Amino acid sequence: MQLVQNVPFFSIMLSMIAAFVSPMLGRRAAKWLSVGLAGAVVCLHIWFLPFMAGFEGSYTYMMGHYPAPWGNELRAGLLEAVVALALSAVMLLSELSGMNKLQRQIDPQKQVFFYVMCDLVLAGMLALIYTNDLFTAYVFIEILALSSCALMMARQVGHTMVASMRYMIMSLLGSGLILIAICLTYNLTGHLLMENIHDVIAVYARDGEYALPITVIIGLFIAGIAIKCGVFPFHMWLPDAYGYSTSAASAVLSSVVSKSYFFLLVKIFYRVIGIDVIMSDMALNLMLVLGVLSMILGSIGAIRCLDIRRMVAYSSVSQIGYLFAWVGLGSTIGVAAAMFHLVVHALCKSMLFLSVSPLCDASGDSKRFEDLRGAGYRYVIPGLAFSIGAMSLVGIPILGGFFSKIFFAEAALFGTRWIRVALLASLALSTLLNAFYFMHTVLTLYRKPKDNFVFQPFQKSRLTTATLSAFGIINLFIGFFAKDIIRFITTGIENLA
Amino acid sequence: MNGLLESLWTHFDVTVAILLFGIGFTTLLLHQNLIKKIIGLNIMDTAVFLFLTTQGFITDRSAPILKEGAEAAAGYVNPIPSGLVLTGIVVSVSVTAVMLSLTIRLFRRYHTLEIDSMTLMMKGEGD
Q: What stretch of H or E contains B75?
């Protein structure tokens, strides 16, 4: 065993220790500890990814001295490494870029706790990505839910408080369903480690036993995670929560928290139930329907917004819909496309949230489109960053979003006739709607301000400008590496099964 | 029909758990009052714990604490579900605490416990 193989364990432990130590530190120390932690996790994964790329298959990592059926395990493969690197990079850049705004919006005494919650979110994200134990996953789901609720309401205005109440309620319904699904799985198989469950379910599937309970389990997992990600019928809390909390929190919630839940679902599909059982199961259609509804109705919701942050939030609903629909398609290439989009969307959406907030500062602290006219000239770098992100999500060639759209279209061709038609049509419609609201916003940013616009001086922050430039460069060039990322993801998915 | 009733009766613990879960779920989802919602949440969690515990229970066996002279595993019930329930209870308590503190904050701000009237007032206050 080589030292580099400890990276998953080290990153989780470092995050937990940092979260534990931070409350005892001062505001500045906690802040830099949290940023340093995210930076360290990113560096560890930069070291880890090339190792995993050269490593054949995957490995399990025993926690403590208890072997398989009793102990707790981590498991690392190429897919996990790619997703963990992308999400921890998002975490680092979000904390840096939102730092100045956060200092103005959050009560100074509460800022320590904001960073504690950031550390916990990082720990939860890594644990959900790497865990090989279903019950550990449940515990970290709850840790993520509580800490993201705290991130949401760190900025205390009426909107965020009501939204975090709604979020808690939905989130608890979701965890309740997931817990029942885990109980049923345990009843059926007598195991909690993913590998052991997988073996037992494979035997049941071969003999045709317990078909109905397995369908119920899959349905419960899908419903639970869908509620937690804010897919269409369950999205009521989302626009307020993402639209009014401080920009770093919105970026982390939309790009790190909901993506880790989704990754866990895919992991459950492959590692717990077994992808062959999933693909022949009708519960997967639930996912397809939720995804397609979310894609279209989320975009329509975004068009109706008069407020730029709520628009970006609604666009998250529609983008999560893509992920659900293409995993619901029930083919490996669909899952690969969804995973690629997960990485691209995490990098894009967090940049959009983070660039919106300086643009609003440049427009007299208003989020309304009519006041935002010309903001792209008043504050150049965030304007450019927003334009890059928006164009990428619309699918302008050479940007990351273009490759995920192509990949989506290619994957849709593998469906049966009706699914193919439905997916391609909704992809086209949703792209059209995306283009409409994103391009409208980009044009607004570069239009002449209205006649009675009074310019209010605002503070430009060097840190925000620098991190947004870094974010912009990553998003601009991710398209050039699309081939490699897709190759990594496809190999990773093969190893997952 | 008779068969269904009979199987409901033989698994009456599961039936009770499902009924409780339904009661909790609907209370959490449909009631306007935040305190009632929190009560619903607790009922729902209790139902899940009841379900889990009964699944681990085996008739005529004792609690999974080692006794002198009875070392064979066959003498004890399955300890894992009980362990899961303990973890679940910890989670449920902390979640309830967070929800209650949020409720206090919201009440101080809006002087109501109804989530719909809060939403109305919230819309009126702008950013």
A: none
Closest approach of chain B CAs to the CA of A97, in angstroms?
22
Pick left, alpha or beta for residue A471 (phi over 0 → left; psi -120 to 50 → alpha; otherwise beta).
alpha
How far apart are alpha carbons B88 and B45 in whole angstroms?
Answer: 8
- A471 vs A15, A37, A310, A494, CA distance in Å? 23, 19, 21, 30
List pLDDT tens digits, range A338-377. Answer: 999 999 999 999 999 999 988 888 888 888 888 888 888 8
CA distance A419 to chain B (A): 33
Write the class of the CATH domain B2-124.
mainly alpha
- Nearest Cα to A255, choosing from A326, A349, A120? A349
Q: Where are the beta strands (DSSP E) in A9-123?
A: 59-63, 72-76
Q: What is the pLDDT of residues A249-301, one digit of tens each?
A: 999 999 999 999 999 999 999 989 888 888 888 888 889 899 999 999 999 99
Reading the block at residue A489, the tokens are 């993801």
Query: What pLDDT, on the 0 to 100 scale, is given for residue A105?
Result: 86
Interchain CB contacts (distance < 8 Å): A and B: 80
Kindly state whether A149 is in contact with chain B, defined as any CB-CB distance less than 8 angstroms: yes
- The structural domains of chain A, with segments of one domain joined by +, span 3-496
How high is the pLDDT of residue B79?
A: 80
Tokens matching residue B88: 């679940």
Contact assignment for A183 to B52 by CB distance below 8 Å: yes
In B, which residues are within 8 Å of A306 by CB distance? none
Is pLDDT above 80 for B62? no
Per the prediction, chain B carries an average pLDDT of 84
Return the pLDDT at B115.
Answer: 85
Q: Contacts of residue B18 in chain A, CB cutoff 8 Å? A: none
Contact B83, A186 (CB under 8 A): no
Q: Judge: A156–B105 Cβ closer than 8 Å, yes or no.
A: yes
Contact (CB, 8 A) for A132 and A77:
no
* Angle formed at CA A157 by CA A156 and CA A163, multiple of 5 degrees: 95
Q: Which helix (H) or strand (E) holds A233?
A: none
In which residue are the tokens 């509620």 written?
Answer: A227
Closest CA to A61 of A136, A140, A5: A5
User: Which residues of chain B lie closer than 8 angstroms to A183, CB-CB?
Assistant: 48, 51-52, 55, 81, 84
Q: Write out residues in chain A with pLDDT < 50, as ranges.
A: none
The enclosing H or E element of A73 equals: strand A72-76
Question: CA distances (Å), A99 to each of A32, A161, A265, B94, in order?
Answer: 11, 21, 32, 29
Kindly provide the b/e burial profile for residues A130-146, where b requires at least 16 CB atoms within 10 angstroms of the residue's own CB. Answer: bbbbbbbbbbbbbbbbb
With an 8 Å Cβ cutoff, is A72 touching chain B?
A: no
Its pTM stands at 0.94
